[in-house]
Amino acid sequence: MPHVIIVGCGFGGLAAARALAGAKVDITMIDRSNHHLFQPLLYQVATAGLSAPAISAPIRSILAEQRNVTSLMAAVADIDVARKTVVLEDGSEIAYDYLIVAAGSTHSYFGHDEWAPLAPGLKTLEDAFDIRRRILMAFEYAEREDDPVRRAEWLTFTVIGAGATGVEMAGTLIEIARHTLRGEFRRIDPHQANVVLLEGSDRVLAAFPPDLSEKARMQLVKLGVDVRTGSRVTGIDQECVRYTDRDGDQRLASRTVIWSAGVAASPLGKALNVPLDRAGRVPVGGELSIPGHPEVFVIGDLAAVTSEGKPVPGVSPAAKQMGRVAARNILAHIAGKAPQNFVYQDYGSLATIGRKAAVAMVGKLKFSGYPAWLFWLFIHVYFLIGFRNRLMVMTDWAWAYLTFKRSARVISSAIDTPPSKPRDEAPTS
Ligand SMILES: Cc1cc2nc3c(=O)[nH]c(=O)nc-3n(C[C@H](O)[C@H](O)[C@H](O)COP(=O)(O)OP(=O)(O)OC[C@H]3O[C@@H](n4cnc5c(N)ncnc54)[C@H](O)[C@@H]3O)c2cc1C
User: Fold this and answer.
1) Most buried pick, 62, 172, 302, 310, via CB within 10 A?
2) Domain locations in the chain?
C-alpha cells in the first residue's frame, strides 16, 4: 500500500490523518512531542487557569483506533524530496510515497533572537509552564522585596503584541492580580500590579475591523490593562523594556515580559528547497503541493496559500481544512484523478479579553462583551479534543467563574535567585 508520512500532529496533520481513516494507505505520523495540543487555550495554562492535560492528549491514544496509522515520536531534521525520504534527528531515514508537512510555526523576534530568553513566547506546553512560573514567581519576589522601586518592577507585567494571544494574556494577568491573589500576600497588595500591553500598530486586534478593535481596547482598559498602542519595542533586558512612541524613547521598568508579537513558519520548510515567503512559509498551489512534486503537500501555518485571491490566515480552521484537502488529493492521485483546489471557508473570528469580555465576528455579524464571551466559551469547549478534556475544562472554568480562583497554580522547581543587578537609572514610567 502507498506509504503516507505526515510530519506534525497539530490541527492540520491530525485532520489529514483522520481524513485518511479507512483508506488503503499506510500512514506514519511523526511528531516531536507525544501530544496533540489545543493551542487556542494555551494561554490558560500559562496563566494557571487550566492544567496541561485539559488542553492536550497523547497522539498515540488519539490515533489508537485508526489501524492504518503508526505513530512515531521523533523530530524530523531534513527532507530529501528527490529520494522521497525524511531524515530524523538521529540520522535514520524513512521513505514515503506521499508526504504531508504540517510542522506549524514558531516565534519571530524580528531579528532580535537575544530577546527570547527575556521575553518568552507562547507556542508549546513548555513555553506555557515557563510563563506561568515567571508570573507566579514575580509576585513571590515582590513579597520579599523591601525596595519599593524594585517591588514595582516585579509588579509590572509587560505583554508585547496585541494580537489575540497578547490580549488574552493581558486580560487574564490583570484578573490574577485584581481577583485571584486577593488576600493571599501580607507585604504587597497584588491589586497594585500593572499590566502593560505594548502594540506597535495603532490598534489592538488588528485582524478585526476597527470598531471591534476599539471595543476590545475599551474592555481591556475597563479591566485595568494599560494599553499603549503605537509603541514599538527597541530593547529588552532583565529590568526593563525600551520602546519608542510618538513622544520619543521610553523606558518601562518591568521584570516579567511576555512576547506575543511575531510568528515565523517552522524552520522545516527550508528542507524542501523551494523559495520561501518573508515569514518562511512554503508557497503551495491550490492543490497544496509544492511545484514539481505532486506527492509533497504542505499545510497549515507552514503553507503560504491564497484562496479566492486572498491569503489564508494562520488559524486552526484553515489548517484542518487544508489537512482534509491534502488527504483527498493523495487519494485522487492514487486513483489517477484530478486534484481538488483548496478553498478556505472562513467561519469568523473570536478573541476573548477576560471575564465576560470578548469580541466576535461571524459572517457579517459583529458582537462584543458578555454574549461574545459566552460564544467564545462554547466554541472552545466544543472544539476541544476528547470528552475528558471538555469535562475538565468546563469544571475548571465553572470553578474559576464562581470563585475567581485558578486551579493550576502549582509550580514545581525550587526558587531561583532573582536577578539583582544594581539599578543604573531611575524608571521613567
Ligand atoms: C497561543 C496560541 C493561540 C492561538 N489561538 C488560536 C485561536 O484562538 N483560534 C485559531 O483558529 N487559531 C489559533 N492559533 C493558531 C493555531 O493554533 C494554528 O493556526 C494551528 O495550530 C496551525 O496548525 P498546524 O497543523 O499548521 O500546526 P500546529 O498545530 O502548530 O502543529 C504542528 C505540529 O508539528 C510538530 N512539529 C513541528 N516541527 C516538527 C519536526 N521538525 N518534527 C516533528 N514534528 C514537528 C509540533 O510538535 C506540532 O505538534 C493560536 C496559536 C497559538 C500559538
Assistant:
1) 302
2) 3-32+74-107+263-334, 113-261
Q: Are 226 and 213 in contact (CB under 8 A)?
A: no
Beta carbon of 301 within 6 Å of any ligand 1 atom = yes
Task: Please identify every residue annotated as catalytic.
Answer: 168
Query: Going by CATH, does the domain composed of 3-32+74-107+263-334 fall within 3.50.50.60?
Result: yes
Q: How many CA atoms lie within 13 A of 279 on its CB side?
A: 19
Q: What's CA 330's distance to the chain center, in Å?
A: 29
Q: Is 10 in the pocket of ligand 1 (CB under 6 A)?
A: yes
Using CA atoms, how far apart are residues 105 and 137, in angstroms rounded to an integer?
28
DSSP class of residue 38? -
Q: What is the DSSP letter of 121?
A: B
**CA–CA distances in Å: residue 26 to residues 6, 65, 330:** 11, 14, 12
49: Cβ below 6 Å to ligand 1?
Answer: no
Extract the C-alpha cell encoding 368: 462584543
Please determine, for residue 177, whether its predicted confidence score (pLDDT) is greater than 70.
yes
DSSP string across 217-260: HHHHHHHT-EEE-S-EEEEE-SSEEEEEETTEEEEEE-SEEEE-
Spacing, Cα 15 to ligand 1 middle (Å): 13
Closest protein CA for atom 44 of ligand 1: 31
Please tell me the distance between residue 322's alpha carbon and the centre of ligand 1 in angstroms. Answer: 13
113-261: CATH architecture = 3-Layer(bba) Sandwich (3.50)
Question: How many Å lie between the centroid of ligand 1 and the Cα of residue 39?
Answer: 6
> 145: helix, coil or strand?
coil
Amino acid letter, 58: P
In tens, the pLDDT along 126-169 reads 999 999 999 999 999 999 999 999 999 999 999 999 999 999 99
